[in-house]
Design a protein that fits this description.
The complex is a heterodimer.
Chain A lengths: L1 H29 L4 H5 L5 H11 L5 H13 L12 H37 L3 H14 L3 H15 L18 H5 L5 H30 L5 H19 L2 H38 L2 H8 L4 H39 L4 H10 L3 H29 L1 H5 L6
Chain B lengths: L18 H24 L2 H25 L4 H4 L31 H7 L1 H29 L1 H15 L3 H11 L5 H29 L2 H8 L4 H37 L9 H15 L5 H29 L7
Helix pairs in contact in B: 1-12, 2-12, 5-6, 5-8, 5-10, 6-8, 7-10, 8-10, 10-11, 10-12, 11-12
The chains are: A mainly alpha, B mainly alpha.
Chain lengths: 390, 325
């Protein structure tokens, strides 16, 4: 297992390097960026040259590439052309994106699994067909339109849109009075919430797995979900950030709901076909013939084995999810890395765009690594195979 | 001795057929296979619905130029410059003359909707063809040669999988605002569609490459090219078709999204319509003109969904285990 893990990590690093190199040259060659010509308006030729030299834009492209790579290797993201420290901006943007993506993906995954399981178990019929149709409709809908619909529905019913405005530091739709007297910014609260969320869900999931394995105690799925929810909300009270956290969740809710609606369909479709395949296996018939209750056959014998292809297919749909989140962020002006990327592209700020690429690459490679590890844990064949995960 | 066996060897006598007879037999086999496939495909009502939707969009694409040249006067119904002086105020709700009403600039929504169908078809099908072709070729190579070829293809596909689609869309929108549908589809297919297609198809190709008939072909002395084209490719085609259908959904959204950013592209499409509806609603400080907003949004969903539903039907044909008990 350790050997497998090390091999995958090293491979990911090589992939990241290749990806970053490709992106650097692609962006620099295809886009006719010239930050100085565009934005240094009250400046004569000599002053422009000086500016270029100061920003390092006069160097040839290979030289710039190696300079930038040297910075990255020293864990220094450097400064953007707008003279902000990129690492500072990123610590503000990344938690905002993860605050939408992590709970969104988890909830969408659970919804997709449950719906896929039940529709496959019911077989063909009006209810299954209708559910499948609705899932595909959400999955293939135009993301900005979906975001608009969700925002419209929310603003009509539950919440009044407060301040709609965007900059890098303020979260949209947050209650300004609440944040006036706090020392911590939204990104710090978001980071705390994320850490709590990840720790508690890892604790619950691994703990219940161990219990099942060694003590034969089975904690049902909905109880695990309840435990995670309760634990996360409890941790906010424990940290004393509950008001701010609820405000953030309120602000993020439109983006999270849109993201869930957009992404649960794919999991549901894969789970449905995977479950249909598993249901033709002999051991399901044997389990039924033994006289086991239907829900035990469905949940323990069929669904657990159907889960593996879903995990490996999720790897392939990661870029689709990332595209979705960028579009949603842009449509709702949610201050995450997607919006950051868009705005810095308009600003022609190449170092910033490259840092976003780097972080997106790291996040998706980490996600793939986690999925790989889970898949290898669930299926020993993967650990020893030459063929690969999928 | 049964009839039809030669006296010396006891083996059945091999009958000789003319080329014409062989062709007829092949045709009959192909027809029967098609009929079987259609029976399986049509057993899934959602897949049939998808097919009907695709036909509907095809009719929409065909009907627009005909209508514009016969019934609809160009000055009123042109999708870009049309204006109806009899209608006031704009945007107006649906009337008998304008079935879906008019947008904020007084253009007929139905005409715009129909006009956008052809470019969307072209973009979607080009991207699908490109990504499926590239994916099939690479996956067959990597499954046949394995080893280092397989390693490099898989990992290269992984790298391309990281490629963020929105970045590509902005680059196209800013740098190549006048890109035609074919070029856009090809670029999307190469840069984004091909990687996931390769990964999925490679798994299928590997399943095929360990089949007994591949071994038989090797023992019979088939060269690499013959084995790949005559034995692997035909078995890959259903899966490639399936991946094609799935690729359509991605590129249609991408194409719409480039327009939704507000980058002027020569081809007006559903994304432009949605963008216009939002922009004018913000400008007029009103709720968006629903009659101009809902048709393109629904068209988007239905278009991408039609291909997805057909893909599910094809999956049923290609993979017997999915049919259930």
């Amino acid at each position: 297992m350790a050997q497998y893990l090390i091999r995958q990590t090293l491979l990911s690093l090589v992939k990241l390097f290749v990806f970053i190199t490709l992106m650097f040259f692609l962006i620099q060659i295809v886009m006719p960026f010239d930050f100085v010509d565009q934005f240094a308006q009250n400046c004569n030729a000599a002053c422009r040259e000086a500016l270029r030299e100061q920003l390092g834009l006069d160097l040839p492209i290979t030289q710039r590439y190696f300079n930038w790579l040297g910075q990255i290797v020293r864990f220094d993201l450097g400064r953007s052309l707008r003279q902000e420290s990129i690492a500072d901006v990123m610590t503000r943007l990344v938690p905002a994106t993860l605050l939408v993506v992590l709970p969104g993906t988890a909830i969408a995954f659970v919804i997709g699994l449950v719906l896929g399981k039940f529709t496959a178990w019911r077989g063909r019929g009006l209810i299954s067909g209708g559910t499948t149709f609705a899932s595909i409709a959400f999955f293939t809908s135009f993301p900005p339109w979906l975001a608009f619909l969700v925002a419209y529905a929310f603003s009509r019913t539950t919440y009044v849109q407060r301040s709609i405005g965007f900059n890098f530091t303020r979260f949209p739709n947050t209650d300004p009075n609440l944040w006036l007297n706090t020392e911590m910014g939204p990104h710090q609260i978001a980071t705390q919430m994320l850490i709590a969320m990840i720790t508690i869900s890892a604790f619950v999931l691994i703990g219940s797995n161990l219990l099942r394995r060694y003590r034969r105690i089975d904690i049902p799925g909905f109880l695990q979900v309840l435990l995670i929810f309760g634990g996360v909300i409890g941790s906010w009270y424990l940290f004393g950030i509950s008001e701010l956290a609820f405000d953030l969740v309120d602000a993020a809710s439109v983006a999270i709901v849109t993201y869930i609606l957009l992404s649960f369909g794919e999991t549901m479709l894969i789970m449905r076909s995977s479950m249909t395949e598993v249901m033709t296996e002999e051991y399901v018939n044997v389990a039924k013939a033994k006289g086991l209750p239907t829900n035990v056959v469905r949940d323990r014998h069929a669904a657990r084995n159907a889960l593996l292809p879903v995990l490996s297919r999720l790897v392939i749909s990661l870029p689709y999810l990332l595209t979705g989140i960028v579009i949603i962020e842009d449509a709702l002006t949610w201050p995450g890395i997607g919006t950051g990327m868009m705005i810095s592209l308009y600003w022609q700020d190449i170092p910033f765009v490259m840092s976003v690429m780097l972080i997106v690459g790291i996040i998706s490679l980490i996600a793939r690594l986690v999925l790989d590890v889970i898949a290898a844990y669930m299926d020993p064949r993967i650990r020893f195979s030459e063929v690969g995960t999928y | 001795m049964p009839a039809g066996q030669t006296m010396l060897t006891g083996l059945p006598e091999v009958p000789t057929y003319t080329r014409r007879q062989l062709f007829q037999m092949r045709l009959r086999v192909a027809l029967r296979r098609f009929r079987d496939a259609w029976r399986i495909f049509s057993s899934d009502s959602l897949a049939v619905l998808g097919l009907i939707l695709i036909f509907m969009f095809a009719i929409m694409a065909v009907v627009h130029p005909i209508l514009l040249n016969t019934v609809w006067p160009k000055s009123i119904y042109d999708p870009v410059l049309g204006f109806d002086p009899r209608v006031f105020p704009n945007p107006s709700p649906p009337t008998a003359g304008h079935l879906f009403g008019t947008d904020a600039l007084g253009r007929d929504v139905l005409s715009m909707l129909l006009a956008a169908t052809t470019p969307t078809f072209i973009v979607g099908l080009t991207a699908a063809l490109v990504s499926a072709t590239v994916g099939t070729i690479f996956s067959i190579f990597s499954a046949y040669y394995r080893g280092s070829v397989d390693f490099s293809v898989t990992n290269l596909a992984d790298v391309f999988l990281l490629f963020p689609a929105p970045l590509l869309m902005i680059i196209i929108g800013v740098r190549f605002p006048e890109l035609g549908p074919v070029a856009l589809g090809s670029i999307y297919g190469l840069a984004i569609g091909a990687s996931s297609t390769t990964i999925v198809l490679r798994a299928q190709a590997i399943k095929i490459s360990v089949m007994p008939y591949m071994e038989a072909a090797r023992i019979a002395g088939g060269g690499p090219l013959q084995i790949m084209t005559r034995h692997m490719l035909p078995n890959m085609l259903p899966h490639a078709a399936l991946q094609m259908m799935i690729a359509v959904a991605g590129v249609v959204v991408a194409d719409g999204f480039i327009s939704f950013f507000g980058f002027s592209r020569l081809v007006s499409n559903w994304g432009t319509m949605i963008y216009d509806a939002f922009v004018y609603s913000a400008f007029l400080k009103e709720a968006p003109a629903w009659q101009a907003l809902i048709p393109p949004a629904v068209a988007f969903t239905l278009f991408a969904m039609a291909f997805y539903l057909v893909a599910r039907g094809l999956q049923l044909v290609a993979d017997p285990r999915l049919r259930g008990n």
